[in-house]
Amino acid sequence: MVNRVVSRLGMAAVWMGLAPGVMALEASVEGVDDPLAQNVRRYLEGLDAEQYSRERLESEVLSRASEALRVYGYYSAQITPRFDDPEDPSRVNLAIEPGQPVRIEVLELSVSGDAADDPPFTEAIDAFPLATGDRLRHAPFDSLRSNLANLALERGYFDWRFTDRRMEVRPYADSARLYLSLDSGKRHRFGNVAFQGHHIETRRLENLAPFATGEPYLASEVALFNQRLGQTEWFASVNVRPRLSRELGQLALDDDDDVNWWQALDVPGIAPRAEGPRIAAEALLSAARLQRGEAPEVPIDVVVTPADRHQFEVGVGYATDVGPRLRLSWEQPWVNRFGHGLDHDLYVSGPEQQLTGVYSIPLADPLRDRYRFQYGVRNKDNEDTQTLESTLEAGRRWIFDNDWQQTLYLRGTYEDFTQAGVSNQVLLLYPGISWSRTRTRNPTFPTWGDRQRLSVEVSSDVWGSAAEFLRLTGDSEWIRTLGDDNRFVGRVGLGSITTDDFADIPPSLRFFTGGDRTVRGYSYESLAPEDDEGRLVGGEQLLTASLEAQRRVTGQWWAAGFIDVGDAFDDWRPNALKTGAGLGVRWISPVGPIRFDVAHPFDHDDTFRIHFAIGPEF
Q: What angle do CA 143, 147, 149 make, to 5 degrees?
């Protein structure tokens, strides 16, 4: 018995939970087409017939349907509802005769004040889609009203008000009169910037502001300032906001009836009368606006909290080229009040171990201009290459408005190496310049993106370098999609070193290729010129290219087909580039894209090589 009661209660609870959706009144419309019919159905969505009596339900249906038609200018429509069941209706059919639409007889739109000469306001008025004689539609009028109000706030017209805002509809005459007048008042200008909670020099933070004191206010500039402060990575939180003071509040008069001592009357039976204001506060405010000759200023308040001074990150991965790999990073986004930064990075894999660090000094524009001092120690043991390299570098980096980065640097390298059984020790000092740009959408698995890099380096014994050379490198990668399920990846890489001292060129400056990210089907950096004993020497030239097509199979799984070509060589025109092709699988996992490829090198019969890697292309 108890189980039966519980079961019935449970079913009742389920029915009650489903009731609103199940009992919603369904509507069909005849006599008018979309968008009128669609709007009528939308207005009737969610109407629960059980909540109304028969008469009230019909009244509610007529009210909502009429309102849905009025917003499109039909104020005299005749609507006949027919319910499927008079006692317990679940569906209604509306037969509509729309009648004559209301047309615009008078249209007066205007902007006064400083905004009268502000192009966005005049453009908004000119873009109004209705004209005299057109059928009335509410949406454009409401949209223009909201647009003008938003423009006023976004562009610093904080004293704005509508002096006229009317939509006069005369259904008996099938006409309407629209009036919309905005008085913007004076445009506010940027005032001084005040910082709170900052640990970086004020002057350095002020340089990040995209505006100067006295310039016209723009909300977008405030948002950009907020973004720039966040991009410095000096702060854990950033809040930039205008300080808006209400003059009305400043002019407000005391409402108390308290009487000052000099107003007291020493006459029995006569209460003293307080001197009240002889002019309303609104009138005082209007007078103040009229008397104010200069444009008002808006101070900007910036409240920040410092970022953690020491930040650590650990990353693990695997690639067929190098096997398991580990990366430890220690970042100090700020080390002093000038905003200098210091980063250290440790990379460990089977063939290569590397420790690097960068000390950066922001200049006048901290986001786009800075000095960089780098150090690095690298040990590499791969194929026929064994090398221990130490590097120091001083440079300056610029970031331009088109997102290109330019770095001018001077690098000193000491390398103790053995290549193809030949050992050497060299000390090189050479300047260089590089340009790079990376653009992506959704960095984890980009649906669109590209990356370009180009560098030029020169070494000469004139300034004490052990070898003379001119070295150029460049590469470009693209990612494009066709629809939602087709993705294409392309790569091209070039390299050249011109020298008469090739024996003194260390492995870090010679060219090798092959592996997961260059020519699949071949092992990591296994393609290069060889000596008489078949040992890799390294090349003076490099050329690689790759084209890959991917197709979504289901969800986060993609299939891929690819062809790679390339080689490192000593002459500009190699006799034959190495070619590898194959098929692969891509899985967009929670930790990043995982790539699994099976590739066949065309110059080896019955040979396949598996390539596995974790991480995005860029």
A: 120
